[in-house]
Amino acid sequence: MEAAKPSWAFGAGATRAEKGLAYAVSLFGICALVIGGNGLGWTWWQWLIGALLVHDLAGGVVANGLDTAKLFYHSPLTFTDSVFARFVHHPVGFTAIHLQPVLIALVIPGGTWWWGLLWYGWALVGAVVVDRAEERLKRPVALACVVTGIMVATYVDSPPGLEWLPAVLLLKLVLAHGVPERLGRPAAAVGPEGESRDDVSGGSGSHL
Q: Which of 31, 36, 166 is nearest to 101 (CA)?
């Protein structure tokens, strides 16, 4: 029997609990937007766009951080030869198609006019830098991109109700998606008799 194609959201083999957590965070984010956004004066279609944005970004932080999604996106794409699919499968290409900050700035009033361009560019540059960094530096570089972005975001006027977007966007695209799983494992420590820590443990159990 032919194996099922991996999901572009979760990869292959994600459990019901893992998927449920991603959807739960998505739902929580939408509820937080509705409750916290009371009085924004948005139209129904602006609320719809906001809800879809939260679903994609907030739920996407969890979905993109799953081992199954990381394995899918950081392994060769084997089930299609589509040029577009290969572009989206690449960490930088995946980030490049996330034009939400630019588009949302066009439909939600308020904030600095270049707000959307700033965070789209910040995420894209972060994805490029993480992709080109040596293996042990990928996660630290991603964390640096996220934390500096969060700090800068406090000084840039955003559309009302979307102050959270830079942090969540960078968490999803640069950290959760851009960093392969199990990176930066230190070299095996040497024990008193010259054996490595792995040897001392007898090679049993899982290695973190």
A: 166
How far the first Cα of the chain sits from its last, in Å, is 34
**How far are the Cα atoms of 69, 114, 165, 169 from residue 27, in angstroms, in the given order?**
20, 29, 16, 17
Residues of the chain with pLDDT under 70: 1-4, 182-208
0.90 surpassed by pTM: no
Q: Residues 149, 122: contact at Cβ < 8 Å? A: yes
Task: Give me the pLDDT at residue 40, please.
Answer: 86
Contact 70, 11 (CB under 8 A): yes
Which amino acid does the sequence have at 58?
Answer: A
Residues 6+ apart with CB under 8 A from 104: 49, 53, 116, 159, 162, 165
For residue 74, which of 20, 139, 17 has the smallest C-alpha distance?
139
- What is the DSSP code string of 33-53? HHHHTTTS---HHHHHHHHHH
- pLDDT, tens digit, 9 for 90 and up, residues 77-110: 888 888 999 999 999 999 999 999 999 988 888 8
Q: What's the whole-number average pLDDT of the chain?
A: 86
